[in-house]
Write a structure and sequence with these properties.
The protein is mainly α. The protein has two domains: 91 residues, DNA polymerase, domain 1 (Orthogonal Bundle), CATH 1.10.150; 151 residues, Intergrase catalytic core (hpI Integrase, Chain A, Orthogonal Bundle), CATH 1.10.443.10. It has eleven helices and three strands; from the N terminus they run αααααααβββαααα. A three-stranded antiparallel β-sheet has the order 1-2-3, with no helix packed on it.
């Protein structure tokens, strides 16, 4: 059998045929679904992998971390089901000599107690729901969407955000400039926050005192926003989309860092997002 990633449909079909009669119908359907999701993960996050034979234990370990994070709402049971479905699939490939070794053989299944993720990050579905929550086409919604998008895509702190001035925003260069400790100014790409920032820029002139105050984000009453207001704003939209946890700016930043870190970014790149170092060794503390 051709084990190229692009031939994933044929591999899943062969696996489904093998499952038939060996497992309950519902279990077989679930296993097929989880294996298809595994291929989607490889295609999206490991695009250099062209053949299932190229999958390494390191990639599998990242996948395990990924399913632990993305299955937070359904719990550890869902994570373990996904793990064993992929393990079973790889064992089937090995039994039929389609692959030489099973990269999942020595990787441990998700632990039954993986509470480190609960409450620390938002899964991707929650992040996108939160970012899309300010839906109305008016100045306050435009401002709030720009704030949420900027917090996520640049990993700014609430202090940095409320002190952002008009002159710090360069829409032409798709960049915002943040003053760090010691007065050092650092440019950060807006990434996907660019369009919401541009849209809010069109509305900013409608805010009271917009021509007098230098701050980029203004309150409804035409004043500088404070950090407590940002916290309330996040809570308002989190509640709107059904997120019951107390969502904070730090949680949004950690979510971005975790999702980037899971998908192959270096430690240094992840640290740029959260600036969170272990006091002893200076390494980013991943939640395990």
């Amino acid at each position: 059998m051709d084990t190229a990633i692009k031939n994933s449909k044929a591999m899943v079909a062969g696996y489904a045929e093998w499952l038939e009669g060996r497992y309950a119908r519902a279990t077989a359907r679930s296993y097929q679904l989880y294996v298809r999701n595994f291929f989607k993960y490889l295609k999206y996050w490991h695009r250099k992998i062209k053949d299932i034979k190229e999958v390494t234990p390191e990639i599998i370990a990242k996948y395990v971390t990924f399913i632990q994070a993305s299955s937070k709402k359904n719990g550890i049971v869902a994570s373990r089901l996904r793990f064993f479905a992929v393990k079973n699939f790889l064992e089937w490939l090995g039994t039929n000599d389609f692959i030489d070794t099973n990269p999942l053989e020595k990787v441990k299944a998700p632990k039954r107690d993986c509470g480190g993720y609960k409450g620390d990050i938002l899964v991707e579905k929650e992040i996108w729901a939160l970012l899309d929550a300010p839906a109305k086409k008016e100045k306050i919604s435009a401002r709030d969407k720009a704030i949420l998008e900027l917090l996520f895509w640049t990993a700014m702190t609430s202090h940095e955000l409320v002190n952002l001035k008009v002159e710090d925003v360069d829409l032409g260069e798709f960049c915002v400039y943040v003053k760090r400790k010691g007065g050092k100014i650092k440019g950060r790409p807006m990434e996907r926050a660019y369009r919401p920032m541009w849209r809010y820029g069109l509305y900013r002139g409608d805010f009271i005192n917009s021509d007098k105050l230098p701050w980029f984000f203004l309150s409804r009453k035409g004043m500088k926003m404070d950090e407590a207001t940002i916290t309330r704003l996040i809570q308002k939209y989190a509640k709107k989309v059904g997120i019951n946890e107390h969502v904070t700016v730090r949680m949004i930043r950690n979510s971005r860092a975790i999702h980037v870190g899971l998908y192959g970014a270096s430690e240094e790149y992840v640290q740029e997002f959260v600036k969170q170092r272990n006091r002893k060794n200076g390494k980013f503390r991943r939640h395990r």
